[in-house]
Amino acid sequence: MSLPEKQWAQVVEKKGGPPVYKEIPVPKPGPDQILVKIRYTGVCHTDLHAMKGDWPLEVKMPLVGGHEGAGVVVAKGELVTGFEIGDHAGIKWLNGSCMECEFCRQAEEPLCPNASLSGYTVDGTFQQYCIGKATHASKIPKDVPLDAIAPVLCAGITVYKGLKESGARPGETVAIVGAGGGLGSLAVQYAKAMGLRVVGIDGGDEKRELCEKLGAEAFVDFTKSKDVIEDVKANTPEGLGAHAVLLLAVSERPFQQATGYVRSRGSIVAIGLPADAFLKAPVFSTVVKMINIKGSYVGNRQDGVEAIEFFARGLINAPFKKAPLKDLPKIYELMEQGKIAGRYVLEVPK
I need a labelling partner for 332 at 20 to 30 A (CA). Which of 2, 53, 215, 343 fits? Predict the structure, then answer.
């Protein structure tokens, strides 16, 4: 098919932003890459961090952000066998990896020291046409709506991986910090689908209503609670605390509170990445309660397949609001103000 030479994109021209809506060239796929005409792309807090240069990881500039892109394959390299023109595909955070290092050989591709990251080290999905390594792109069933699946490609896979890493078993309780946000609203659903009981922690009536609607058994509003730790424990079996904690917060304080309400032998899984934050835990209680504290990044290729299958089976209903691609700066403003319940999905011009 004939492809245009130019396309519309949101381009961060310098660290700190703002993104500029402008025309740029349409990229051409390499031998092992696919070119996806993006129909919809989610907006993740990571995209805001990338624009601001918050992390100790070199970011490409100028940059097209975004890493939750769902669309249609319109071109592919000569070595690509897993996709055909017209297939539906997703471009995720992990755009590519070397496939040769020890981590890649052990299916730990996200840990590859030479990984390429969509919307960070390579241009991402806030554009009409985006390229990605075919090996790491996700195959999306054609009966799955592309707007609804977009948030699953990062937020969904990330929290699904975190729940697996927590070791929590069906019937046990998981406390989800940031439960009403983009990742949290998916984490509540994946946890419920995996047979876990959920205590949501977040702020505001809108987020309480969302979490309860999605299946959280209890909700602790940190903006109203006089003692978050005791309130979380009170909503767990026998008041012993959560078996697992998923930390999805974008500020540091919740990371310091988790050891107070996780039960003995429980797991604390850090997923959120607030800038310049540290994990701190009292040594005595960490030792005598045998608490497991760990980080969880993004899922591997199989985690991605499983997370999408949960959605395709109707077990996940990602709450999202739509906006046009040109409105990205407004969404970043809302994100910084903490006013987004669920996820925003951008509709990319045809």
Answer: 215
Structure confidence by residue, pLDDT tens digits, 63-108: 999 999 999 999 999 999 999 999 999 999 999 999 999 999 999 9
Residue 306 lies in a domain: no
| Residues 109 and 184 placed together within one structural domain of the fold | no
**Looking at residue 276, what is its pLDDT?**
86
175/332 Cα distance (integer angstroms): 27
d(CA 350, CA 339): 29
Confidence (pTM): 0.93
- For residue 317, the model assigns a pLDDT of 86
**17 in the Ramachandran plot: left (φ > 0), alpha (ψ -120 to 50) or beta?**
left
Amino acid at 309: E
The boundaries of the domain holding residue 64 are 6-152+319-347
339 within a domain of the structure (yes/no): yes
In a domain, 314, yes or no: no
Q: What is the pLDDT of residues 133-156, one digit of tens each?
A: 999 999 999 999 999 999 999 999
Nearest to 138 by CA among 12, 21, 298, 333: 298
The reported pLDDT for the residue numbered 1 is: 66
Cα–Cα distance for residue pair 128/39, rounded to 1 Å: 7
Determine the Cα–Cα distance for residues 313 and 152; give it in Å rounded to an integer.
13
Pair (166, 146) in one structural domain:
no
Q: Is residue 247 part of a domain?
A: yes
The domain tally of the chain equals 2
For 131, residues 6+ apart whose C-beta sits below 8 A from its C-beta are: 27, 28, 29, 30, 33, 34, 35, 36
Give CA–CA dist 348/324, Å, rounded. 6
Q: Are residues 283 and 199 in the same domain?
A: yes
Residues 7-23 pLDDT 10s: 999 999 999 989 999 99
The mean pLDDT of the chain is 95
- State how far Cα 1 lies from the chain centre: 33
